[in-house]
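Sat 14:20. Reprocessing the chain from the morning session after the first attempt stalled halfway. Input below, unchanged.
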Amino acid sequence: MSARLTNPAIATTGRPVRFWYDGQPQEGLEGETIAAALAAAGIREMRHTREGGRRGLYCGMGACFDCLVTVDGRSSQRACLTKVAEGQQVRSAMPAGTASDPLVALAPEAAAAPEQLEVDVLVIGAGPAGLSAALAARRAGAIVLVLDERLESGGQFYKPLAPSHRARTPSDRQFADGLALERETLAAGVRISQGAQVWAAFSPREVGALVDGRAHVIACRQLVIAPGAYERPVPFPGWTLPGVMTTGAGQTLARAYRVAPGRQVLIAGNGPLNLQLAAELLAGGAQVLAVLESAPRPSLRQWRQMLVAARTAPDLLQQGWRYLRQLRARGVPVLWGHVVEAAEGRDALRAVTAVRTDAQGRAVPGTTRRFEADTLCLGYGFIPSTELARMLGCEHRLADRHLGYPATVTREDGATSLDGVYVVGDGADLGGSRVALARGRLAGRAAARTLGFDAPEPADALDELHRAQRFQQALWSIYAAPPVSLAAVPDETLLCRCEEVSFGSVREQIRAGRDTLAAIKRNTRLGMGRCQGRYCAATAARLVGELTGRPPHAEQYFAPRPPAKPVPAGALGFEKPEWGGHKPAITPNLARPVEHTPFAPLRTDVLVIGAGVLGSCLAYYLSQDGQDVTVADRDDVNLQASGANAGSLHVQLLSFDFGAKAQAGGGPAAATLPLGPTSVRLWQEIEAACGEDLEVKITGGLMVADSEAGMRFLEAKAALERSHGIDTQVIDGAGLRQLSPALSERLLGAAHCPLEGKINPLRATYAVARRAQEQGARLLRGCDVQRIERLPGDGAGFVVHTSRGIIHAGRIVNASGAWSSTIGHMLGVHIPVKGAPLQMIVTEPAPALVNHLVAHADRHLSLKQAASGGLIIGGGWTAAFHDDMRLNRAERASIEGNLWVARQVLPAVSGLHIVRCWAGMNVNIDGAPIIGDVPGVPAFFNAVTSNGYTLAPVTARLVTDLIVRGRTDIDITPFRIDRFL
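Finished this time. Tokens:
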């Protein structure tokens, strides 16, 4: 049996091309993707995982990032979206990042600034909803631009033929309707840019995109988001094997590229899309073993729903019956009420076991069936692509379908809670192609009408919308599957495909009290891979709900961060002006607590306010020294500044802590120098005491310079540091490249400080907090301190009123970081602390490039390589609070400037994708911490530092010594609050 499907009405037009895959010659067709060519050749294995496994084509639409290959040296190319070409060298592994096997730049050399475009209406997505919206707005007179990531218009529904094939006439109505809509849209004057990646929506009027590989910033007066949906994950043992893919991936191979997804195909899922794929594969000559449908067989008891479906979309109902007849005629069984139990195979799929389920979704004993199959297509429903809408801060709700998912709240015309933003189609909520078409029309007209064009609301579109909605509801009722339950999924089954996190690992975290998506993410790396949580977040949220009994909420999902999908780092780097230090800002309460249960009044020796890294270290040392200690946090452990930290262990001064840019002349920062080495040693002791790898690595730090002035600056700074006992030596360019060969040859030298290093802040805070709890410390989360009463008399203590109850405390330690001034105000103490929201960037995993902590003498930069392989890029670039999102967010200018500096220092950055940009919180004081008691307010202590992660242990140790012993071994005079009084 040929892997190429046949159809007398479809001709092959792409010329044959020869390319190489992992050193072996392969044949393909011009105009098809690498994934299609490999599938035609029977090759399923693509990406290598960190643990040595293999992945293959899974989603087929560029969302899962499992089909990554290296193409002519360009790493992490999605085989499902990359066209095959004559002479291509394709391989499954990443380049080594060496001189002989470099990371080739992924994008053309960036210009001086992103290209600027202005349009009336920007539409994101060229599926049914996006094209219909664009057509409606353009016909009303608006200037419309459509940006679409796919290689051809049509989206996941229309799936037009690729240029490798041509049909004399469309082979079915779906093809015909898609081609007609595209032709109408283009004829009306809409500009459509295919292969355009929208990487961020910074406001309703500003969108960042890559068009033809170059950065563009599009200013739009109205924004229509129509990104579609992706198939929901259905985890079971073996679901990550090459050969297991979504029904959408199988259909893309079959419809767009005329390639069978395999030689022995089993299809499983819920809904008629699976029947369509089976019928299309059979018609093209492929072998289909069976269709497993999780819903029970429709019966006459559903006559009302069938009648509604017949009245609202008789053609679709007839089409469904036609598929069933075709399968029956070819002897392909449809097994109603059956689901996949497991997929088997060592390196790729070899067999599938299935089982019949009862009305509650439980396996019926004795009904297991086994299929010898090399391909399993899964279609159990969809999840809307809400990343851009959530990034903007549009209101969302939790939709209670299958796993549950965030859905954008819209009016009938797609209007959201933000003026000028419309979200339509399955990217808002699931409804099918006809709902998408009608809503797109309404949105396009509404956007044009808002701009003053003559665009009355089309009454027929409303009628079409309501009719399509009634049909969809009827169809869902007919195909109602048993409720989803994850209880039976074995612990060893992977939940997160990208980071290879198992169900057992996540269950262990939830049982240990780390039972929010944010906490699970920080402790396991779930959701941190290239797919950015698309294929694990909904499952993990469902699992949390099942194990805690706590109903999920839309805002408890992973925070939406740019980029919407990984984007080449080199395409976004643009030089920006420099400035001194951090830019302070006042940040409101960012907490999203999940714990609200009131508690009875409690008493404690010491109340620590704030459960970040400093609060956790305080709990650790205080409980170790026999104190009864309680830690209260209005959110949860490690969820604000500490949990967003990059994990640098600084010992030498930052560039803006010395010289003309330094606060208070640099004196306070210089006085802090002796604390650094002590604190790093304490981190090493904590790691040993916790008994787990906190990834504390003393690799040494390099502050590089690319000018003679920069070298003179480093010489002066190093001299000051040596006077405070810090071992810092200035080395020349040759010495620098000997230490770190991947750094730029343009660098003239560096200050080398052997004591610097890095730590994993996603593990360390939780580890030290857990050890403190084992020693008897109490942790109260969701506990917002609202008022503090100081009782009369020395040593009388305090009455602390919180959102969950009253705490009687003998002493209070203020460890609330950027929000310390708020706590101080409750006791009449002015604490001169401000927050400074900062951004961080992380790339995809890379080969070993840098071992040191890298900074720059003249530029804002901090760069290091994490144990995961990702480069963490920061250095004090400003982030900002976003009102609609209610969180701090990275700014476009900072992302661009930060990447430009990183690329100048480490050229290999241009050969990597950035996976995530997020905003942390720095503490702005005067360059030195605030440590100790407060004159006139006995028993009230501060533990606040602007170098929180490095100095957390030493700061906590010093405050503990003051509380327990009444003195410290280190003179803390330079750090007392007295200097501000």
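The chain is about 30% helix and 25% strand.
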